[in-house]
Write a structure and sequence with these properties.
It contains 14 helices and five strands. It is an alpha/beta fold and about 240 residues long.
């Protein structure tokens, strides 16, 4: 799930980001905005599936952000973050199509509840995203980033080296790292690792491979290391994932 956080208080921003990402590696904070105007720009550039927005922000408050996003036909789901004294305003926002609201201070239980409901609602959308090419999932990315995504999609089962990719594209490794992190929202190495694990999960679920073979089919040369990475990304072991399918 790709998430944008709009919050003008740095401490609150860090707290909410850490809370969300601690719940599951599937929840990716792809953009952060310190005011409503910046949030609208990030919404159009990064195409998040979910936006957590504070009610009160400079330049454009949370309600104005939501109305403007709807006018632009954004498909993102909105979660309003509000102080206790603004509780009634948050409830009224549900009538504007806001998915839910969270009252500060946000507890991990409340965040989990909202994120689980969002995951259920977006399930169909996420399945559709899995069927799309990586380049189509990041239509606003730099052309070099989109080329890199295509290479990842075509060559994930072989060795992928960021330095060699940069040379192939005619740029420095540092510049590729900067572009990729900016447009995709996470470092190249982390993205490739997660993409390989998600591909492994799809192969296992389809019955096209076994748990003993899947590591080598998605680019890992060490089955034990694959097992550790699989648990890190999926939250369960390979054997547990296969049993639960």
């Amino acid at each position: 799930m790709r998430i944008l956080i709009a919050e003008d208080e740095p401490r609150a921003m860090r707290g909410l980001k850490n809370l969300i990402t601690s719940i599951s590696p599937d929840y990716q904070v792809v953009a952060e905005a310190a005011d409503g105007r910046q949030a609208l720009e990030m919404l159009q550039q990064q195409k998040p599936e979910v936006v957590f927005t504070d009610l009160k922000m400079p330049y454009m408050d949370g309600m104005a952000l939501i109305r403007t996003a709807h006018a632009l036909e954004s498909t993102a789901e909105f979660v309003l973050v509000t102080a206790y004294e603004e509780f009634e305003v948050a409830r009224e926002a549900i009538g504007l199509g806001v998915f839910d609201y969270l009252v500060k201070p946000i507890t991990i239980e409340d965040a989990m509840r909202v994120l689980e409901r969002l995951s259920t609602k977006l399930g169909g959308t996420q399945e559709h995203m899995a069927e799309m090419s990586l380049r189509d999932q990041y239509p606003e990315a730099h052309p070099l980033v989109r080329k890199t995504l295509h290479i990842i999609e075509e060559s994930y089962a072989s060795k992928l080296n960021q330095k060699e990719l940069a040379q192939m594209l005619g740029i420095s490794q540092e510049y590729l790292c900067y572009l990729f992190n900016k447009d995709v929202g996470e470092p190249f190495v982390k993205f490739v690792k997660k993409y390989r694990i998600e591909t492994a999960k799809r192969l296992l679920a389809s019955g096209r491979t076994t748990k003993d073979e899947v590591a080598y089919q998605v680019g890992f040369s060490d089955a034990k290391y694959f097992g550790r990475v699989f648990r890190e990304v999926a939250g369960v072991s390979v054997a547990e994932y296969v049993r639960e399918m």
